[in-house]
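Question (not urgent): is this output format expected?
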Amino acid sequence: MNGLPSDAPFPPGDLRSIVFHWTAGDYRSLFASYHVCVALGESEEGPLAVLTSDLRANMRDVRHGDAAYAAHTSGRNSHAIGLALCGMENATPSDFGLYPVREDFIAVACRTAARLCRAYAIPVDRAHVYTHAEAALEDGYFGCAEDQRWDIARLTPSPGPLQPSDAPHAGDELRRRVREAMKDCPPAREVRGNVG
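Got this back:
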């Protein structure tokens, strides 16, 4: 498994948002329903951002046509990047299980999101950089049931019941970290543009 090189150019095209997820798996399993998975590599050297799906597949209105794309967020995949932290298998809001969200995974995800925001001129605000939990809250399927989503509504487990306010609280923290990471991002060549 190779990590995304820090100086690798991204393909030109029209990407307008980033959605943070977790995979609900272990720390190494990758999923093509996201564009980038933050995972442990073959050795224990720490997490890597791994490109798992072609960014160009979502550089369009995916509701039209039958071409494959990364289907990471119900109804929100057009022009959207799915960025997932590996882990959280069998997690609950009070017990993150054997593969809890890790601080080093969050750091890599936020640095990767910062690079993507800079490359595609994506504003770091709630409308453009958000969690799946925030999308689920807006779209009416937030929660812990099988057909609901709460990734990433909490960055640490808490004994209290999951609350709708948890989602924007965690999202705000991730956006703060992305903004901080952007300060250390070298200026990128603008790649956003119209595609046919």
